[in-house]
Amino acid sequence: LALQSQTNPHFLFNALTTIAFKTIQYTGGPNDATRMIDHLSRILEYSLTDPEREATLADEFAHARNYVAIQEFRYRDLFRVEWELDPEASTCGAIKMLVQPLIENAIYHGLQGSDRRGTIAARCRLDGSTVSLTIADDGRGMSDERIEELRAMIEADHVGGGTIGLVNTCRRLKLRYGAAGSYLIESEPGNGTRIMLRFPAIRIGCA
Amino acid sequence: LALQSQTNPHFLFNALTTIAFKTIQYTGGPNDATRMIDHLSRILEYSLTDPEREATLADEFAHARNYVAIQEFRYRDLFRVEWELDPEASTCGAIKMLVQPLIENAIYHGLQGSDRRGTIAARCRLDGSTVSLTIADDGRGMSDERIEELRAMIEADHVGGGTIGLVNTCRRLKLRYGAAGSYLIESEPGNGTRIMLRFPAIRIGCA
Known about the structure:
2 copies of one chain form a homodimer. The first copy, chain A, is about 45% helix and about 20% strand. The first copy, chain A, has 7 helices and 7 strands; from the N terminus they run ααβαβαβαββααββ. A 5-stranded mixed beta sheet of chain A has the order 2-4-5-7-6. In chain A, helix 2 packs antiparallel against helix 3 (about 55-75), helix 3 (about 55-75) packs parallel to helix 5 (about 100-110) and helix 6 (about 145-155) crosses helix 7 (about 165-175). Chain A starts with 8 loop residues before the first helix and ends in a 7-residue tail after the last strand. Chains A and B meet through helix 1, helix 2, helix 3 and helix 7 of A and helix 1, helix 2, helix 3 and helix 7 of B.
């Protein structure tokens, strides 16, 4: 989009930096506020600059970790995340904002409202020349009808359900990789949800 | 853009709110950090939600004031802004992000680096059925050659200079209002810069 009407990301980073300095004055050193600001600055940097640029899976996992760090401040006891990124896969390319929306989805649609602490597993490995990315939660799960509904939204030509992170992400996967990209949704009421994405492994980073 | 890859604006607001609560714990009440966060939250809200929605000039001035409030924290003695928004004009429609980028432009290209405190005047009035918006600074000004360069960038079919707020804003004005929108750049080295935009007055807000 050539004619952007967005706020200059540099302005946002600079404002956050000024806020962080102010709070350091209050406590005499780094504190929870500065740590949150640090994560938030990295999130803004990643999401506001060059959304079309291809990222590596290492970038994607780093971004998702910053997101989770902020959410952990907010929902201390709601969940924990197990991260597993195969070094072989970490230097492969990925569309930006692939991992974080799936984790967001797991938090809000899988775990929130549960009375026990949930676990989200974020795993990425190489399967020959294919990247296999799995985000699984042990939350409340979904019915077959709901899975079918989501699948219909993903496959629909018209835009709908675009505010649902899972739908949006699977659509972007198909748009970018065509038939070479695939998704799988496994879920059962009471037994969590497991999203698996597969797409071609293209090495773009340095090992 | 249906398939956005942006960070959920709600997440950003919520994170900023959590940071503000943390800093209130440090000082026992509202402080400079919470005030900056408040301005920043409003800026994010305005710039990240519905960029295509038509705003009123009241919205535009409120957004520019939040932007200036943050910049005043950062550059305390660099500049001051005189605001003048005709109540008649305030309920008229405007494309979003019309005023703030021109003020940003005045700060960074007009005033920064000057050894005295500059003044920016932001004025908007109705001129019959036309909105007349003027952003003027008393900073270092520009040569005729530079004005011609900017004009060429604005009128060019290809994209270039799009990172310059002034160029971007004038282009968006033309794109939105066609021949009914016009811009005027007046400047002289050492004698400040004056940008005047004119576009049809369409009342969309409540008086």
